[in-house]
Design brief:
With 311 residues, this protein is an alpha/beta fold. The chain has ten helices and 13 strands.
Length: 311
């Protein structure tokens, strides 16, 4: 099937999201040099609202308007961060994932103007983050630090840090690279020290399911190992049925020998209870692995823990 003459790509209008679109455009240009790509930026609810996301439907706050533009025919391809796409519900009717790009770094980074590491921060140091996942893990590992609610795109958060509104930030390593700011990283935290969100470091390409031409044109961008990891992770999250205030973390790893592993955690917001599960599977059926890890956490009481958290 021949590639289309034009592919219109819809995305959030933040600097990081637009940088992600440029990656997709560059990779498509290599595959289909004759295809022209256009960017359709939209402002999402999550980008407009700087308060608690649970007050604006939480899940889907960064995807709803992008999905609407795709379904309305205003664009042919949507680029999403997988971590922003709700996994407890199906994709919007009429759309499908066409590809998952090769995964970037899944780790979190500490940004401190004075170059201190997380362990060197003094009592009462203010850490800017609105991630319930990060807040819970910091409460467990560094209870002497204070988490300050901090919304906005990465550039805006860095500006607020420079203005002294907080003492340090936690940001995704991949995101800092996407906006060309790896220079601000003070310390990269291992996944064991700060377990990442489901879907960390992965861009998803979404199309209308009846647009076979665009689906075929972008299919070659799909990375098989990343596809298996995300299938396991999203099935895990689907079975767990968390809400936007649920501190849930986890990541799958496709190993060179064909095996797949999935490590996941569920926390109470204060970090005092941590449920862990880590399982391995052979080269087949990542969805079964995701289900198995979720069931292991449910047997430890994850359902009661999640339901006890207000949202």
């Amino acid at each position: 099937m021949s590639a289309p003459d034009l592919i219109r790509i819809v995305s959030r209008d933040s600097p990081m999201a637009l940088a992600q679109v440029e990656r997709v455009r560059n990779e498509l240009a290599v595959l289909h040099p004759a295809t022209v790509t256009e960017v359709v930026p939209v402002r999402t609810t999550g980008d407009r609202w700087m308060g608690d996301l649970s007050q604006v439907e939480g899940k889907g706050a960064f995807t709803k308007e992008v999905d609407a533009a795709l379904l309305a025919g205003e664009a042919d391809l949507a680029v999403h961060c997988v971590k922003d796409i709700p996994a407890d519900r199906p994709l919007p009717s009429g759309t499908v994932f066409a590809a998952f790009l090769k995964r970037d770094d899944i780790r979190d980074a500490l940004v401190h103007p004075g170059g201190l590491t997380l362990d060197q921060l003094p009592d009462g140091a203010r850490i800017g983050t609105s991630s319930v996942r990060r807040v819970a893990q910091l409460a467990a590992s560094h209870p002497h630090l204070e988490c300050v609610p901090f919304r906005g795109n990465a550039n805006r958060r860095l500006a607020k840090l420079a203005a002294g509104e907080v003492d340090a930030l936690l940001l995704a390593v991949a995101g800092l690279h996407r906006i060309d700011r790896p220079d601000v990283v003070t310390e990269i935290l291992s996944p064991e020290a700060m377990c990442p969100p489901i879907g960390a470091g992965v861009l998803a390409l979404q199309c209308r399911e009846d647009d076979a031409t665009t689906i075929d044109a972008v299919a070659a961008l799909n990375h098989p190992g990343t596809f298996r990891e995300i299938t396991a992770e999203r099935m895990f999250l689907h079975v767990l049925q968390g809400h936007c205030n649920s501190p849930i973390a986890g990541y799958a790893t496709a190993h060179r020998n064909g095996d797949l592993s999935l490590r996941a955690c569920v926390f109470t917001p204060d970090g005092k209870t941590v449920l862990n599960a880590h399982e391995w599977a052979g080269p087949l059926d990542p969805a079964t692995l995701g289900t198995s890890v979720a069931v292991a956490l449910l047997r430890q009481g994850a359902r009661e823990l999640i339901d006890s958290i207000s949202h």
